[in-house]
Amino acid sequence: MASPPRRIAISHCAACKYFKRKCPPDCIFEPYFPDNEPAKFECVHKVFTACNVGKMLKAVEADQRAEAANSLYFEARSRLDDRVYGITKMLSQLNREIQYIEAQTATIKSEIEKIKALVTSQTGASSSNYSSVGYLQPQLQPYQVSTSNPNSPRVDEPVAFTRNMTNP
Ligand SMILES: [Zn+2]
Question: Sign of the C-alpha dihedral, residues 57, 60, 61, 67?
Fold first, then answer.
């Protein structure tokens, strides 16, 4: 009695599925662009083309390819979301946040120094006298970045964000 033919599930990566080809065992896309995430591959293919993505993945060490694939996807998504600035928009916003936080930090450090100087000048003063420095409390507002808020910082041009990266 002949057994019924067994169905073998052939797994394709999203790239081979997209191109309607058989996924070879050593397919460079298979580990990073699984067939259940077709949008991920289509996104990088639109921006970089599959050929270039394959070249870039082969150019990095095997243990870094997953990160490289995710990085390419992130960049491609950013580019498709904003055709003009791409990932630079996010970097500019992050740079503005860094600048704002640095300014706040400088203000707080300055206030701390003022309080220290005041306390030092009041040598022997009781702890109740510390209330006299209450006016030195910094008035800080939480910083919010929202792309939907028309009052949020606009990204009219990319800010040179390398300054903070090279000189932390
Ligand atoms: Zn494949």
Answer: negative
